Amino acid sequence: MTGQHDAPILAVDIGGTKILTALFSPEGKMLAKDVCPTLADEGVKPVIERLCSAIESMLDGNNLKASQIGGIGIACAGGIDSGRGVVVTPSPNMAGWVDIPLADIIRERFKIGTFVVNDASAAALGEHRFGAGRGVNNLVLFTLGTGIGGGIIANGELYLGAIGAAAEMGHMTIDDNGPQCGCGNTGCLEMLASGRAVERDAVKRISQGEKSSLTEMAGGKAESVTAEQVGTAAKNGDPLALDVLSRAAYYLGIGMVNVVNIFNPEMIVLGGGMAELGDLFIGPGRKMVAERAFPISSRIVRIVTAQLGNEAGVCGAAAFALDRSKRGTA
Amino acid sequence: MTGQHDAPILAVDIGGTKILTALFSPEGKMLAKDVCPTLADEGVKPVIERLCSAIESMLDGNNLKASQIGGIGIACAGGIDSGRGVVVTPSPNMAGWVDIPLADIIRERFKIGTFVVNDASAAALGEHRFGAGRGVNNLVLFTLGTGIGGGIIANGELYLGAIGAAAEMGHMTIDDNGPQCGCGNTGCLEMLASGRAVERDAVKRISQGEKSSLTEMAGGKAESVTAEQVGTAAKNGDPLALDVLSRAAYYLGIGMVNVVNIFNPEMIVLGGGMAELGDLFIGPGRKMVAERAFPISSRIVRIVTAQLGNEAGVCGAAAFALDRSKRGTA
User: Fold this and answer.
1) In this structure, are A252 and A323 located in the same domain?
2) A158, A302: one domain
3) Which of A39, A36, A35 is nearest to A16 (CA)?
4) Residue A1 — very low, low, confident or very high, per pLDDT cuts 50/70/90?
C-alpha cells in the first residue's frame, strides 16, 4: 500500500480558508498545483469530501491513477499525531477536528500510503528542503500569522517530538503575568506578538479614545481593524500603529532570544503574513537577539524571511511523504 | 590519533568545585573513578594541569597507556563549541575560561582523540544512555542547581545545535518584566527558579523583617542562608521557606510547560540539588504541565528525577567520546 517508488507524490495543505493540492516529482519538484476553499464551518465530513475531490481532480488532470503515485502527504493545522496520522485537536479555524483518523480515511479511499503532519512543521521542512533553509542543519521556523506556529529542523531532520505535536512556539510563556491564552496557558507569545494580538491591541487603544488613521481605514468601524491595516498604517507613519507594532515586535524578539538560547540554531526562518512587514516587525527582534541572547549563539544565527510563501506547507508535506514512504512506514 | 577501537574510554567532568575522572569499558560500563578539587580560582592553567594529572593517574592506576584507550571525553561547564572542542565562554564559577582550545590541549598531550561537550548536555546524554531516559527518544533534562542548565535528546540523539551551545533552558525569558540576569537577558528561568534565586528571595524577605527558622539555621547570619537550608526549613514546615520554595516551583512549572509545548518530549528529567527536594519542588510544576500545556503533549510526558546523580556528566562525556570516536571525528 505504499505505492510505486520513483513515482510522483501528491501533497495537500489543509488550512482554515483553503485547500492547496500539488503534484511533485520524486525529486520534489512541483509539477502542478490547484486550490479550493476549505469552507471549514461546514464541518469535518464535507471538508474531507472536498479534500478527496481535490486529490481526484489532481490525479485526473495529470492522467494518473492513485496506484501510480508514491504516496500522499497532508499538512494540516491543529495538534497532529503523525505516527498514527490522526488530527487529535483542532486549530481554532477548524472546529470539530477532534481525533479524526485522516491518514486512514485517505489511505482507504485511494489505497495509497498517506502521511499527516502539522502544517507549521511541514512549512519548516519545506523551507529546509526547497527554500530559505537549504543546507542548514538546525533551524527554527515561526509562522507569524493570525496565530503563531512553529517548526524545528534538528540535526538535519524534521523534529516532531514524541508524537508530532512539537514546535508550538506560539505557546511558550514569555510573560507569566500576561493575558490568558485560549490554549490554557498564560502570557503565550501568540497572545502578545501575533496578528490577532496586534488587532486586539489596536482596537482596544482606539476604543479608549486614541486617534489613528486606522479608524478611517476601517471605514469608521474601529472594531474591525485588521493586522494588515495596522501594518499599512505603520508604514505610513501612523504613531498608534507604529507603537502597536513595535510592542508586538518586542515580544517576538523575546521569543526569538529564547529560541536562540534553547536551540543554538544556524537560522531562524520567519514566515506568514506578519513576516511580510519586514524590518518594521522583524528588525527590533534581530537587535534583541544580538543584545540579549548568549553571544556564542547570537553571533552565528541568521534571521531570515521564508522563501516559499504559502507553498511552504504543501512542499513540506510532499517531502514528508517522500521520506516516510521511503522508510516504508505508511 | 583516534585511539584503538573496542578500547576503554576515559571521561572527565570538570565542574566549578571538583574534577571527576572515570574509566569506561567500550560498552559504557564504569570501571573506575576518582575525584579531585578543581580550585578554579587558581586560574585556567593550574586547572588544566590538575586535569592532566587526573587523567595520568587514572591511566597509571589501571595499568594503561594513553595509546591503549579509545578516546577522552570531557564534560565542561560553560559555552562549548563541541565541533572545535573549545570552551568559548566561562561558567560563572570558572572565570578566565575564554576561548580555551581544551580538546587540542589534551589531544596534543596524550596523542588521543579528545571530545568536549557542555556538562548539562553531557548529563542529558548520560541519563539517556545509562539512567532515567534509557529507551526514550525525545527528552529534555534540566539541571536544577545553583544555576539552571539543560540538555536535549532529539530523535534519539544528543542535540547540541549549530556548534554545541544549545539547551540553555535556564535562560529563556518567562517574565519579560522580571529581574535582569547576568547573561544579558531579562526574566530568565534561572533568575526565578534556581538555588540562587531561592537564596536571594529568602535573604531578601528575612532582611525585610519576616520571621523564619532560617535565621537560626544560618547562625543568625540571614545573608548566608543556603538553598539547602531553605529546603530543610520548608520540609519542617517553616512558612517563609515554604512560600519561597513554592514561588520558585511555580516558575519551574512555567519553564516545564514551555518545554512540553516546544518539544513534545516523552520525558523531562530533573537533576541537580534542587531536584532532590522532590515533590515539594517538582509537584507544583507537574500539576501546571497537566493544567496548562497542550493536552496532546501533557498527557504523554513523564516528569522524573535523574538517576545518575553527579555521575551523569562523566557518563555522558564517555558516551559522547564513544560516539564521536566511532565517527572518526577527533
Assistant:
1) no
2) yes
3) A39
4) very low
A21-47 pLDDT, tens per residue? 999 999 999 999 999 999 999 999 999
Best probe of the B interface among A139, A176, A300, by most B CBs < 10 A, is: A176
Question: Do the bridges between strand A114-118 and strand A71-76 make them parallel or antiparallel, or are there none, so unpaired?
Answer: parallel
Same domain, A108 and A172: no
Q: What is the 3-state secondary structure (H, E, C) of chain A?
A: CCCCCCCCEEEEEECCCEEEEEEECCCCCEEEEEEEECCHHHCHHHHHHHHHHHHHHHHHHCCCCHHHCCEEEEEECCEEECCCCEEEECCCCCCCCCCECHHHHHHHHHCCCEEEEEHHHHHHHHHHHHCCCCCCCCEEEEEECCCEEEEEEECCEEECCCCCCCCCHHHCECECCCCECCCCCECEHHHHHCHHHHHHHHHHHHHCCCCCCHHHHCCCCHHHCCHHHHHHHHHCCCHHHHHHHHHHHHHHHHHHHHHHHHHCCCEEEEECHHHHHCHHHHHHHHHHHHHHCCHHHHCCCEEEECCCHHHHHHHHHHHHHHHHHHHCCC
Question: Are B266 and A162 inside 8 Å of each other by CB?
Answer: yes
Question: What residues in A contact B265, CB-CB < 8 Å?
Answer: 161-162
Residue among A137, A165, A175 minimizing CB distance to B296: A165
Find the domain containing A81 and state its range. 9-118+310-327
Ranges in chain B, pLDDT < 70: 1-5, 328-330
Q: What integer pLDDT is reported at residue B4 of this predicted model?
A: 62
Task: Sort out which chain A residues have CB atoms less than 8 A from B171's CB and list them.
Answer: 261, 294
**Residue B278 belongs to some domain of the structure:** yes
Strands B79-81 and B86-89 come out as antiparallel
B168 and B88 both lie in a single domain: no
HSE-up of residue A140 (Cα within 13 Å, Cβ side) = 27
In this structure, the answer to whether residues A93 and A147 fall within a common structural domain is no
Quick one: A90 and A140 in the same domain?
no
CA dihedral A285, A287, A292, A295 (to 10 degrees): 120
Chain A residues lying within 8 Å of B79, measured CB to CB? 294, 296
**Cα B82 from chain centroid?**
16
Q: Quick one: A151 and A291 in the same domain?
A: yes
The beta-carbon neighbor of B264 closest among A161, A174, A291 is A161
pTM for the full predicted model? 0.96
